[in-house]
Amino acid sequence: MKSNSVSLILLAAGESSRFGDEKLCSNFRGKPLLQWSLDNLKNVGVLNKFLIIKPGFELNRFDTGSFKILINDDYRKGISTSIVRGLCECAEERTGIVLMLADMPLVSGEDVEFLLESLLPEDEMVSFAYDGRKGFPTFIAKKLFPELLKITGDRGAFQLVKNGQAKIREIEGSERNVFDIDSPEDRLQIW
User: Fold this and answer.
1) Is the Cβ–Cβ distance between 22 and 16 less than 8 Å?
2) Is the C-alpha dihedral spanning 118, 48, 8, 113 positive or negative?
């Protein structure tokens, strides 16, 4: 699939409730957590890139590069609202989206490129996986958008697989594809 027909959506509008503070502004290995994702994805060649944030987020602390900033006023209703916010901004000519989570600082732009290069015409959803766990980045084909727009609450795109509405193909990844920061202690993990 051509990367210039895909939009990348970086989800960064969570409440950080388990972290106890705004985790995306916290330090991880020398820079703010969100900056890792922005830097890792800055050279990914896609149709467009969206960064979904909540109102009042301290965006002036970050170099957002070519990301278009979208505010999710409904962020308290769960991750589904950020996905919908991004989908509603995507260009009509897109053939799919790549979802990324902003609290996964070790996922690389090369991961996104490998994902896009590995897509097959019949793919509905494709994701990295490691040690039996679904990871990121995750590709979702345009034909699933109508169902994706109906997801509510704190459920992501994988809900479509759980409900039998989509088929997922997994690509073997590594620990970086499933590693996220949920608590301050997570920042100390070394592997």
Assistant:
1) yes
2) positive
Both tokens of residue 47? 């149709």
Task: With beta carbons less than 8 A apart as the criterion, state whether 54 and 78 touch.
Answer: no
Cβ-based neighbours of 77, under 8 Å, separated by 6 or more: 152, 153
Cβ–Cβ < 8 Å for 152, 77: yes
With a cut of 60, say whether residue 171 has pLDDT above it: yes
- pLDDT the model gives residue 180: 84
Helix (H), strand (E), coil (C) string for the chain: CCHHHEEEEEEECCCCCCCCCCHHHCEECCEEHHHHHHHHHCCCCCCEEEEEECCCCCHHHCCCCCCEEEECCCHHHCHHHHHHHHHHHCCCCCCEEEEEECCCCCCCHHHHHHHHHCCCCCCCEEEEEECCEEEEEEEEEHHHHHHHCCCCCCCCCHHHHHCCCCCEEEEECCHHHCCCCCCHHHHHCCC
* Residue 187 phi, psi dihedral angles, 5° rounding: -70, -15
pLDDT of residue 44: 93
How many angstroms separate the CA atoms of 171 and 190, rounded?
A: 24
Length of the chain: 191
CA atoms within 13 A on the CB side of 48: 16
Cα separation, 2 vs 11, whole angstroms: 22
